[in-house]
Amino acid sequence: MSTPTRIAKLTLDDKTYDVPVMSPTAGPDVLDIRKLYAQADVFTFDPGFTSTASCESTITYIDGDKGELLYRGYPIEQLAEQSHHLEVCYLLLYGELPTAAQLQDFENRVTRHTMVHEQMHNFFRGFRRDAHPMATMVGVVGAMSAFYHDSTDVNDPWHREVSAIRMIAKIPTIAAMAYKYSIGQPFVYPKNELSYSANFLRMCFAVPAEDYVVNPILEKAMDRIMMLHADHEQNASTSTVRLAGSSGANPFACIAAGIACLWGPAHGGANQACLEMLREIGTVDRIPEFIARAKDKNDPFRLMGFGHRVYKNFDPRAKVMKESADEVLNLLGIHDNETLKVAKELERIALEDPYFVEKKLYPNVDFYSGIILEAMGFPTSMFTPIFALSRAVGWIAQWKEMISDPAGKIGRPRQLYIGAAARDYTPVSAR
Ligand code: SDX
Question: Sorted alphabetically, which NCBIfam families does this protein's record hold (predicted)?
Fold first, then answer.
């Protein structure tokens, strides 16, 4: 637990209160207001938590002004270039880069948990074929707690470890099954000799009628997409997982809650919404019309894939994703991709427009990811499930950090109540 570096003074009415100030490794200092209500009988008010640190964490750090993202201190650009997703999973879970032996052991443990209980296949068949894969993922991941009773005791470190491995191992299988079910094709079992990302691609695109050989370029691009989405400090879905976990709910139920929150178009659903927006724009000559709508206060339309609560500079993931988009499309021989042309022109125009400049709205992680995923052959409905399977390690790492904190307690915010004051019931005859 951090200790105060100095004391701030809060004066309210005619009283002054000491508010301890704590200093992080990086980022803004924090005012520790844990005792404020008991001392001053007041709440703080911060809907949307724009100025609130909800926890201490050692996992991920974002500097929104610099456009910096660190996983356990390592810049995302270096990891995207030199690492791979399972190594990043190890780093996020255990705090250090693994030795070769540690990495091999971790990969073996994950690989041996990639299959799901055979009876879980039945869950999918209860959904309509046209159910959004995020709907099936929320349902099936939540149902994991009905199967894996031997790893749901959150107070048992071994159970926490096993459920972390199971979640990381099985979520690509579940995402692929959600996709296969939505297109009426049979489920494809994982193949343990494949890499994590190659296994996922094969489970999505292989069919019993013919062999499927994973394209190494797509394997690398998929792995990079997973790394870029792996964790992102206390975003909405991670905060959901932490809050769910603070009640002692089992890890599978907590991750299902995170998947539900990620689905929203303001969050992980933006990658699907962004590609659909780029398609609706269609050609670069229609861009001004959409820019005008995004600036119109009376129009709820927003440029999907733009803006961010924290980044007031380029999202470093968007930069890497943009490079990947160029690489994947060129290597796949997709040169006249109208969607990419619209995306690049939209980015250029938006970055010059005073509205976006003043509000510091830059492309975020969701702006280019859909272009790559579409080029790989995924429908837009699979974009957010891929975000979810990539973020699963971040959710589980943050959940483990929260649940292992001996000082942890259930999250229970208060409110600024502006409803009716106490009043007596009146019988209907008197109303
Ligand atoms: C993700 O938190 C994370 O870390 C999330 C994430 C992760 O890895 O977990 O990074 C993943 O969710 C990325 C964000 C994906 N969402 C989108 O691309 C949807 C479009 N973006 C917006 O909805 C918005 O930018 C948010 C939700 C991302 C951030 O919203 P904020 O921080 O609450 O900011 P805001 O909505 O208050 O906007 C500030 C101003 C507003 O104008 P004013 O009311 O001040 O006049 O900027 C405007 C907004 O109208 N604005 C936009 C805009 N985003 C913000 N105007 C047009 N287009 C946009 N995209």
Answer: cit_synth_I, PRK05614.1
